[in-house]
């Protein structure tokens, strides 16, 4: 099911513009919404999940008017919020069974089938009679996905799900999301570029409430080909380079400072042309250097 967001805007009572005419078309499959903290991701996710009102704009999920027909949306929506809390003293089975009742699956045998199936799908069946309080971060997030999948939703929204997971759990969680997105629309909000690079067939970069760029990750990387230049600098040299070049990122690599700059042509000063990746796309866009992208973003 395609999700079409048009000119969605939201200003909070304190004057913060969290969404500024956001327009996005989100097809079936996994869509990554990438942006730094405070970009407006959660505001957008909560609005799509019918938990919050916006000021203006429209959202359609297939033929359903998301802003107007909230009950219809809730029937086909699964949502894993950023701060998904669990009751520590109940078991995974008990809580998922409880959520299933709330979701309207009243027939006992049918419910058991659904709950068992979801626990298997999320690899929690073996631990289904353990209390949730003893679950690791990754297990809790997988449980969060199990509850989001109740009722066989067509649209699944997951808000920053991998923050705090160890590398093994992240891979496991990625595999789970990837399986789900084969036939559903999955909207993944994150500030972790590699989540999007690993998983998403389409993506958008958002900052300060505005969509800056959207497209297929591979195409966006292809578009910056020949424009990313790198070199090591000393700590003392760094301010000079930052003044003279369009620096998009600086990071320590084995104790030395590696800088990447964005330039259409060789910037001189000993820089080498490197193959850019999605992280370069992200930083070039967030720092406002990827200006061709800004002008051409049709989402
Ligand atoms: N209820 C609120 N009242 C006032 N301002 C808010 C409220 N909720 C969010 N904001 C502000 O709106 C902006 C967007 O916040 P939002 O939580 O949507 O961003 P985010 O991209 O999800 O960031 P994070 O990853 O930190 O959650 C931020 O500047 C935030 O401080």
List keywords for this structure.
299 residues, alpha/beta, Rossmann fold, six-stranded mixed β-sheet, four-stranded antiparallel β-sheet, 11 helices, 14 strands, binds adenosine-5'-triphosphate, ABC transporter ATP-binding protein, ATP binding, membrane
Short description:
Belongs to the ABC transporter superfamily. With 299 residues, the protein is an alpha/beta fold.
Helix content range: 25-40%
- Sketch the topology as an H/E string, one letter per element: EEEHEEHEHHHEHEHEEHEHEEEHH
> What is the name of the CATH superfamily of the largest domain?
P-loop containing nucleotide triphosphate hydrolases
Assembly form of the protein? single chain
Low-confidence stretches: none
CATH architectural designation of the largest domain = 3-Layer(aba) Sandwich
How can the largest sheet be summarized? 6 strands, mixed
* Envelope shape: globular
How much β-strand is present in the residues? 25-35%
Q: Please tally the helical runs, counting DSSP H or I stretches of 4 or more residues.
A: 11
Mean pLDDT level? 92
The end-to-end distance, rounded to whole angstroms, is 17 Å
How many domains make up the coordinates? 2
Bound molecules: adenosine-5'-triphosphate
Instruction: Write down the CATH topology of the largest domain.
Output: Rossmann fold
Total number of beta strands: 14
What is the radius of gyration computed over CA atoms, rounded to a whole number of angstroms? Answer: 21 Å
Strand-pairing-aware structural class: alpha/beta
CATH class of the largest domain: Alpha Beta
Pfam families: ABC_tran
Family: Belongs to the ABC transporter superfamily.
InterPro entries: AAA+_ATPase (IPR003593), ABC_transporter-like_ATP-bd (IPR003439), ABC_transporter-like_CS (IPR017871), P-loop_NTPase (IPR027417)
Protein name: ABC transporter ATP-binding protein
């Amino acid at each position: 099911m395609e999700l079409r967001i048009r000119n969605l805007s939201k200003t909070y009572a304190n004057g913060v513009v969290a969404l500024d005419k956001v327009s996005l078309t989100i097809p079936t499959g996994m869509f990554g919404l990438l942006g730094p903290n405070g970009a407006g991701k959660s505001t957008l996710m909560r609005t799509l999940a019918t938990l919050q009102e916006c000021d203006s704009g429209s959202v359609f999920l297939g033929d359903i008017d998301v802003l107007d027909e909230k009950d219809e949306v809730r029937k086909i929506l699964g949502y894993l919020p950023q701060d998904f809390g669990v009751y520590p003293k109940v078991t995974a089975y008990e809580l998922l069974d409880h959520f299933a009742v709330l979701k309207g699956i009243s027939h006992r045998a049918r419910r058991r089938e659904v709950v068992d199936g979801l626990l298997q799908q999320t690899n929690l069946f073996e631990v289904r009679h353990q209390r949730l309080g003893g679950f690791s971060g990754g297990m809790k997030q997988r449980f969060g996905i199990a509850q989001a999948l109740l009722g066989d939703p067509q649209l699944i929204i997951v808000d920053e799900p991998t923050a705090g997971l160890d590398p093994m759990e992240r891979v496991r969680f990625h595999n789970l999301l990837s399986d789900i997105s084969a036939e559903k629309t999955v909207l993944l909000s994150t500030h972790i570029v590699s989540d999007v690079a690993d998983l998403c067939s389409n993506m958008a970069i958002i900052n300060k409430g505005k969509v800056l760029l959207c497209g297929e990750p591979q195409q966006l990387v292809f578009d910056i080909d020949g424009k990313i230049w790198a070199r090591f600098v000393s700590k003392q040299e760094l301010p000079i380079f930052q003044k003279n070049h369009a620096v998009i990122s600086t990071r320590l690599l084995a104790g030395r400072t590696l800088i990447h700059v964005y330039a259409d042509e060789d910037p001189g000063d000993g820089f080498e042309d490197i193959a850019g990746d999605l992280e370069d796309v992200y930083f070039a866009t967030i720092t406002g250097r990827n200006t061709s992208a800004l002008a051409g973003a049709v989402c």
